[in-house]
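Field log, afternoon session.

UNIT: design team B
ACTIVITY: writing a sequence onto a fixed backbone
BACKBONE:
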């Protein structure tokens, strides 16, 4: 199956984890991938981009469109950081700004810059990576107020853009992963004993699970999805 044969996709944050998985899955189905990262080595054709910086994102968009003759079909706003485990009353405003700078401002800047050529063409689809932590659960015992706040903002952004851009041919949706088996999650292995029993199948989601959901929302199969937030959490939030 090659749902994306001949299409062009931009994915932010493809050096590891979910972003790399989504980019690899799109590539396997025939898409030409541009990986926007602050360092090289990610999946896809590397484009330097700091999603926190509007000028950097605009330059990345210009680079991609120059390379494709103006063609763009899909955008995945994935780049994100978690921040530290810090009580809200002790959180430095600089860390608040840093997390929201990547996880919310960065998502908006990427969608805005790459949404413009999609709107001009009157077609395309966008997926933003949110989190179950945004609207459905407050993770414990970690204290990640800025992360949770940013991810809630992402889903609100997606709903707003779905209404604004959907009638103009551009679908905007989000995926909200739960705990996903990535190197980042392995760093929290001491907490797995607490988290795993909260999942229905007794396992965390895989990167491939998240990629499959993202590709569905990007594909023509999801032609009636506007502002959908696809939760993929192994049933964690049911408990």
């Amino acid at each position: 199956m090659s749902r994306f044969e001949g299409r062009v996709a931009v994915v932010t944050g493809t050096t590891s984890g979910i972003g790399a998985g989504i980019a690899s899955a799109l590539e396997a189905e025939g898409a030409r991938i541009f990986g926007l990262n602050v360092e090289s080595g990610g999946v896809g054709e590397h484009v330097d981009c700091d999603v926190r910086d509007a000028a950097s994102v605009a330059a990345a968009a210009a680079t991609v469109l120059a390379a494709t003759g103006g063609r763009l079909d899909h955008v995945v706003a994935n780049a994100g950081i978690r921040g530290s485990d810090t009580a809200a009353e002790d959180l430095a405003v600089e860390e608040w700004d840093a997390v929201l700078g990547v996880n919310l401002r960065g998502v908006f800047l990427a969608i805005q810059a790459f949404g413009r050529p999609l709107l001009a063409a009157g077609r395309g689809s966008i997926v933003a990576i949110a989190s179950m932590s945004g609207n459905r659960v407050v993770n414990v015992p970690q204290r990640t107020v800025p992360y949770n706040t940013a991810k809630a903002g992402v889903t609100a952004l997606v709903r707003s853009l779905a209404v604004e851009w959907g009638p103009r041919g551009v679908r905007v949706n989000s995926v909200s992963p739960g705990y996903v088996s990535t190197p980042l999650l392995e760093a929290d292995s001491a907490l797995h004993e607490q988290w795993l029993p909260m999942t229905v199948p007794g396992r965390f989601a895989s990167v491939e699970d998240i990629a499959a959901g993202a590709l569905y929302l990007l594909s023509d199969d999801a032609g009636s999805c506007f502002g959908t937030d696809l939760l993929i959490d192994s049933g964690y939030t049911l408990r």
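LOG NOTE: DSSP finds eight helices and seven strands in the chain.
NEXT ACTIVITY: expression trials, pending approval
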